[in-house]
Structures are given as structure tokens and as C-alpha cells.
Design brief:
- The protein is mainly beta and 110 residues long.
- It contains no helices and 11 strands.
- It is globular and about 40 Å long.
- The model has no long low-confidence stretch (mean pLDDT 95).
């Protein structure tokens, strides 16, 4: 199983980024999937999750700004991030079941 995250980068506060996570080696539609993030010196936290039923959940810190979605046919999960803040700066990881992607860096400048 491989999870390939992409879409990170450097953006100014108030900007947007869209992360993608392409999965291989598993039937994506059978699993819940999520995005975690880890900032320097902080614990890893769950940012957003989407169940196989498409039910979504979000950390309070990103509600109303981030949207998680999935395309099972493309085996891809997305995280649309709007109104980004400097505190959103972190490495973002795509996760499903017991599998973790390699992470993609998101840096938000003030």
C-alpha cells in the first residue's frame, strides 16, 4: 500500500492550497481516510477525516476553512484549505487504516 501526498507549498496568510493523496494497493472506497498534521515541536493532530460513507469530521481549528473529499474511482483524497493561517504551517500526512503517506510541507507566511 502506498499513499502519495502532494500539493503542499508556500502560501501567504489568507491564501489557499489543495492537497491530494493518491492511494495504491488498496480499495480506497472500503476505508475511512484522513489528514493529520504535525508542526515543529507539537504533537501530531487529526485535521480532517472522511468515512467510507462520506461522512466528514474536522478539528475545531479548521472547521469552516478546510474541506475533505474523496474520489474513489481515482483512489484519491483531497484536502481543500482556504483562509490559511500561519498556525496551519505543518507537515501534512495522508492516512488510511494503518498506512501513512510520506507527508507534504505546508508553510503559511504572515
Amino acid at each position: 500500500v502506498q499513499l502519495q501526498a502532494s500539493g503542499g507549498g508556500l502560501v501567504q496568510a489568507g491564501g489557499s492550497l489543495r492537497l491530494s493523496c493518491a492511494a495504491s494497493g488498496l480499495t480506497v472506497g472500503n476505508y475511512g481516510m484522513g489528514w493529520y498534521r504535525q508542526a515543529p515541536g507539537k504533537e501530531r493532530e487529526l485535521v480532517a477525516g472522511i468515512a467510507s460513507t462520506y461522512k466528514t469530521s474536522y478539528a475545531d481549528s479548521v472547521k469552516g476553512r478546510f474541506t475533505i473529499s474523496r474520489d474513489n474511482a481515482k483512489k484519491t483524497v483531497y484536502l481543500q484549505m482556504n483562509s490559511l493561517k500561519p498556525e496551519d504551517t505543518a507537515v501534512y500526512y495522508c492516512v488510511t487504516s494503518i498506512y501513512w503517506g510520506q507527508g507534504t510541507q505546508v508553510t503559511v507566511s504572515s
